[in-house]
Structure formats: structure tokens, C-alpha cells
């Protein structure tokens, strides 16, 4: 527990002097607010009941003092409002950067398990709640503590018995606040859940709108939606009821306190002279100072809870260690030949899952063009993911040019390997920026050359803004084949000695496949290439074909040799033709 507490406060460190200034201003603001009723008392009691010949001068004097205090109070409160929020926002921004950087380093196995939506809410909502706590927490505690202690002390000196009488009401208020806090939180959480359900229903119905219409099931969807909508309404009614009950019970007790003070105060003015009229007025002015902190207990404890939960969720991710990291003496790869070797490699995705690869050994010579075929789910993609260490083998070793990949600096390892996959991901931005993803230092000319190699130049020039056309939501929509050509241009630019083509043409129509095949052949020239393909016609010219099944690599050889063997490959081939 100590380490997280230390970590929680460590984010104040860069802003410590500013933070202390804000706290001091918060103190000044509260202190000045406390002085006002005292000045009213001074005027009504000492000035107006004293020597009236000098009274006017004194009234002006006190008035002047009040103006100065108002200025001090509001200037320091401006500082608290502005700079205090700024500190919170800065801390939040620091944490967000730290969290994002950390997420970038987490291995793929983390993203296999986590939903992107949930991760996004960590980066936004959770940290927002935390920043509220970071600055409002200390400020509010300071403010209410000063007011409460100050008001109590002043009242006690004015009239101890009446102060103690008022004080006796406070525990009831406190208990009431705590009781309702629980109830309100429950109601508010239920609201959040219900609005979540409404959103989920909208998303479901709208994303499936084609099916809704083709089955003419609009009324079914409307029915489902109205049910969720009604449930949300019900929970809101519940919340409002709880809120109304809370605020009005509270108000009742406050009014009871006021009545007590008025009645007993007036009575004691009549019966004896321990209290006078100005004392009574002062009393009434100060009561709210004692009650407000208790009224705010509810809000403050919610703020604390939400902030602490936000911090725990933040730490949950920060505590995950990037399991795939550079070893302490990682080697930066020099220019390599491109030899790949698997020695007795075993792999499974998670401890309890079946192993995907078992004792697999394999050697690919520099510049070799090797095809990997086999039934879907055999582990072809998995095998290729181990080379750049997207995942680490459970057992056995993988070497590039004779160096164990675990001893190679990750960045320099991944620079050696280019992937062309079935699903292409393009980032928001222009065509130019997307190709430059292959090499951030590339010049425009190099990018255009890469696009030409990838057979992409012509269609890019036909886009409304050529290389500056925006891609994605608000930009041009590209066909599958066009996207694939951009991803190939990217790899041309990267120029890696090892190339992995994983079902790169599987999703394409015959026409695009032809164009892309020719640019892939050009890309493969001079590189060690592993090609995975479902359509065996795509790989029949490969120098060597490896057949991977759940029993490992069961056959290898050229297309003709494997057909002659009449085994698994021949069987797969016969099915396709
Ligand atoms: P192939 O590429 O030969 O079709 P894969 O390498 O994609 O096969 O998958 C091999 C096995 O590993 C399959 O049983 C698949 O369900 C499983 N698998 C693939 N990716 C993951 C993952 N990220 N997490 C857990 N299991 C996975
Ligand atoms: Mg695959």
C-alpha cells in the first residue's frame, strides 16, 4: 500500500511551489470570508451602540476595510480557481502521456485480452476524475477546515452554550449526509449502467440497420429500444427522489438549527443579558460556515472515491510490465544477410491454452523464397509473429543470422522484417504520410519511387489531391486492392532484408490480385521471404514449400516434389483444383 500512496503524491512534485501557493490562497480566501461577519458585528455593536459623534467616520473606515478585503478575497480566489484547475489539468496530462507511452510498450498479448473501448476510457474518463481530486481535494479540505474551525471558535467566544447547542445538531447532519451518500452513489451508478444499456442498444440496432430493414423488423428494434429507455427513465426517477429527499431533509435540519438559534437567542436576550442583538445576528451569519462543510461531505467523499478508483485503474495498467523488452546487453543488428533459424521452438498463447507450436525446427537461407501452407489455425501466422518477437517462444530459440532474437535490440530487430498482411491498417492522415510510416526519414521523392514500385502511383495521382489526399473517415475511401498497394509501398520504403507475406492477396478479387502479385514479386527480390497463402496457385513457384499442420512441419519440398509424394500437400492441392 505504501508504494501506491507514494506514487499518488509524486505527481504533485513538478508543481509543488505552485500548489503550495494555491493552498495559501485558498487559506486566505477562507480566512477573509470569516472576518466579514465580525466586521458586521463590530459596526452594529461597537460603533452604533457607542459614541455616535465619531460613528460615521468609523463606519467609513470599516467600509474601506471591507472593500480591501473583498479585493483580497476575490483575487486570491481567482488564483485558486484558475491555477488550481491548471495544476489538476497538468497532472492529468502528465499521467495521460505516461499511460499512453506505457501502453505503446505493452506486448501484443496485452491487446489480445483488452478491449480498445475500455482502454480509451482509462485514458480519458478515469484520469479526468483523478485530476478533479488532485486539485479540488486539498483546496476544499483546506477551505472547509478553516471555515469550520474558525466559525466554531468565534461563536464559542461569543456564546458558548448556544454554540454547543448548535454543535449537537451536527452529528445528525453528518450521519444523514453519509447515509444519503451511499444511496445517491448507488442511484447514480445505476443511472450510468442504464444509459450504457441505452447506448449499447442504439449501437446494436443502428450498426445492424441493413438486417433490420431486410427483415422488416423496425418495430422489434423500437420495442427493444423503448424497453431500455423506460428502464433508464425509471432509474432517473429513483435518483431524483433520493436527491430530493436528501436535500430537503438536510434543509429541514438546517432550518431547525436556525429556529433554535433565533428562539433561544431571543429568549436569552429577554431573560438575561449574556447575549445581545448584534451577537444574535453574528450567530446567524456564522451558522452556515459550520453547516456547509458537512453538507459538502457527501460531495467530497464521492470525489475521493472516484479519484481513488481512477488512480487504481491507472496503476493497474502502469503496473503491467512490458514482458517483451530489450535485454540488458542487447545487440544492435548490423546489416544482415537474412538467415532465419528456429531451434526446437514451442509456443502457446497463454498458459492454459493448447500449444500452437511444438519443438519446431526450421532453417531458411538468406534470400530464400519459402512458402508456408496448411490448414487454417495450424499456426502459420503465429510462427511468423515469433520472428520479430511480437510474442516470445515458451521454449527453444530463434536466430537471425545466428544471433538469438532475444539478444537483439527490439527496434533494430523489427527494422529487419517487413510484413504485408491480409488486413491493411491505414492511419488517419494523407497518402504521403501513410507511406512515410515505413521510414519516417524518407524524402518525398523516395516515397513516390516506393509507390511506383508498388503499382500505386497511378491511382494515387488520380485521387482528388494526389499524394496529399486524406485517407479515412473524412477523406477518400480506398478499395481493398488500393489499400494493399499502399501497404506494399510502405514496405518498399522500409526496405527490410526479411519479408513476410501473410495472406496478402487472399481478400482480393482476381484483377487486383494480379497487379499486387507482380509488385510483391518485385518486393521479394533479394530478400528472405516467407509467403503464406491460402490459394496454392499463388505459391507453386516457391523455392521450397513447408506444410504446417497441428503436428508441425510434416512435409517440405518443391511443388512438383510434394505432388509426387502424394501426401498432405497433394491432398490440399487436389481439393482446390
Ligand atoms: P493460421 O495462421 O495457420 O491460420 P494462427 O497462427 O493464426 O493460424 O493460429 C493458430 C492457433 O492459435 C489457432 O488455434 C488460433 O485460434 C490461436 N490463436 C491465434 N492468435 C491467437 C491469439 N492472439 N490469442 C490466442 N490464441 C490465438
Ligand atoms: Mg493466419
UniProtKB/TrEMBL annotation:
Keywords: ATP-binding, Membrane, Nucleotide-binding, Transmembrane, Transmembrane helix
Domain ABC transporter: 340-575
Transmembrane residue ranges: 15-39, 59-80, 164-184, 245-271
SMART domains: AAA (SM00382)
Localization per Swiss-Prot or TrEMBL: Cell membrane
Pfam family, one: ABC_membrane
Membrane topology: Multi-pass membrane protein
InterPro entries, alphabetized: AAA+_ATPase (IPR003593), ABC1_TM_dom (IPR011527), ABC1_TM_sf (IPR036640), ABC_transporter-like_ATP-bd (IPR003439), ABC_transporter-like_CS (IPR017871), P-loop_NTPase (IPR027417), Type_1_exporter (IPR039421)
Domain ABC transmembrane type-1, residue spans: 20-306
GO molecular function: ATP binding
Major place of residence: membrane
Protein name listed in UniProt: ATP-binding cassette domain-containing protein
Amino acid at each position: 500500500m505504501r508504494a501506491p500512496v507514494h506514487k499518488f503524491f509524486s505527481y504533485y512534485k513538478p508543481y509543488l511551489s505552485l500548489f503550495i501557493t494555491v493552498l495559501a490562497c485558498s487559506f486566505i480566501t477562507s480566512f477573509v470570508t470569516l472576518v466579514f461577519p465580525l466586521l458586521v458585528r463590530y459596526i452594529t455593536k461597537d460603533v452604533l451602540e457607542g459614541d455616535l459623534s465619531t460613528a460615521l467616520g468609523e463606519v467609513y473606515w470599516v467600509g474601506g476595510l471591507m472593500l480591501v478585503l473583498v479585493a483580497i478575497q476575490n483575487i486570491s480566489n481567482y488564483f485558486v480557481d484558475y491555477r488550481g484547475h491548471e495544476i489538476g489539468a497538468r497532472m492529468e496530462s502528465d499521467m495521460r502521456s505516461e499511460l499512453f507511452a506505457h501502453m505503446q510498450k505493452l506486448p501484443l498479448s496485452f491487446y489480445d485480452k483488452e478491449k480498445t473501448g475500455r482502454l480509451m476510457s482509462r485514458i480519458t474518463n478515469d484520469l479526468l476524475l483523478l485530476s478533479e481530486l488532485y486539485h479540488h481535494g486539498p483546496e476544499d479540505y483546506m477551505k472547509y477546515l478553516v471555515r469550520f474551525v474558525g466559525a466554531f471558535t468565534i461563536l464559542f467566544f461569543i456564546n458558548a452554550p448556544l454554540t454547543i447547542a448548535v454543535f449537537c445538531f451536527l452529528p445528525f447532519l453528518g450521519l444523514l449526509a453519509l447515509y444519503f451518500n451511499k444511496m445517491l452513489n448507488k442511484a447514480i451508478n445505476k443511472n450510468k449502467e442504464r444509459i450504457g444499456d441505452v447506448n449499447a442498444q442504439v449501437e446494436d440496432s443502428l450498426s445492424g440497420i441493413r438486417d433490420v430493414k431486410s427483415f422488416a423488423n423496425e418495430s422489434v428494434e423500437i420495442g427493444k429500444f423503448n424497453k431500455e429507455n423506460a428502464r433508464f427513465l425509471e432509474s432517473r426517477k429513483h435518483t431524483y427522489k433520493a436527491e430530493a429527499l436528501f436535500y430537503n431533509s438536510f434543509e429541514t435540519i438546517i432550518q431547525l438549527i436556525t429556529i433554535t438559534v433565533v428562539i433561544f437567542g431571543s429568549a436569552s436576550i429577554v431573560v438575561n443579558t449574556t447575549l445581545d442583538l448584534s451577537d444574535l445576528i453574528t450567530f446567524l451569519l456564522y451558522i452556515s460556515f459550520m453547516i456547509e462543510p458537512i453538507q459538502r461531505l457527501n460531495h467530497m467523499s464521492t470525489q475521493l472515491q472516484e479519484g481513488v478508483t481512477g488512480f487504481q485503474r491507472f496503476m493497474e495498467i502502469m503496473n503491467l510490465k512490458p514482458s517483451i523488452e530489450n535485454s540488458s546487453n542487447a545487440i544492435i543488428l548490423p546489416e544482415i544477410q537474412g538467415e532465419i533459424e528456429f531451434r526446437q521452438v514451442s509456443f502457446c498463447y497463454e498458459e492454459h491454452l493448447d500449444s500452437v507450436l511444438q519443438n519446431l525446427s526450421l532453417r531458411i537461407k538468406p534470400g530464400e523464397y519459402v512458402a508456408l501452407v496448411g490448414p487454417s489455425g495450424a499456426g502459420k501466422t503465429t510462427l511468423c509473429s515469433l520472428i520479430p518477437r511480437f510474442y516470445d517462444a515458451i521454449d527453444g530459440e530463434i536466430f537471425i543470422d545466428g544471433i538469438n532474437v532475444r539478444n537483439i535490440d527490439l527496434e533494430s530487430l523489427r527494422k529487419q522484417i517487413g510484413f504485408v498482411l491480409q488486413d491493411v491498417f491505414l492511419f488517419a492522415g494523407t497518402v504521403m504520410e501513410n507511406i512515410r510510416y515505413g521510414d519516417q526519414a524518407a524524402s518525398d521523392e523516395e516515397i513516390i519511387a516506393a509507390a511506383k514500385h508498388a503499382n500505386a502511383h497511378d491511382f494515387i495521382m488520380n485521387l482528388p489531391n494526389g499524394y496529399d489526399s486524406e485517407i479515412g473517415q473524412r477523406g477518400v475511401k480506398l478499395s481493398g486492392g488500393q489499400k494493399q498497394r499502399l501497404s506494399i509501398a510502405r514496405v518498399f520504403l522500409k526496405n527490410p532484408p526479411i519479408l513476410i507475406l501473410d495472406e496478402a492477396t487472399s481478400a482480393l478479387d482476381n484483377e487486383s490480385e494480379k497487379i499486387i502479385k507482380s509488385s510483391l514479386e518485385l518486393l521479394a527480390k533479394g530478400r528472405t521471404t516467407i509467403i503464406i497463402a491460402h490459394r496454392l496457385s499463388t505459391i507453386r513457384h516457391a523455392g521450397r514449400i513447408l506444410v504446417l499442420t497441428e503436428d508441425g512441419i510434416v512435409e517440405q519440398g518443391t511443388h512438383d516434389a510434394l505432388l509426387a509424394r502424394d501426401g498432405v500437400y497433394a491432398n490440399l492441392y487436389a481439393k482446390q483444383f
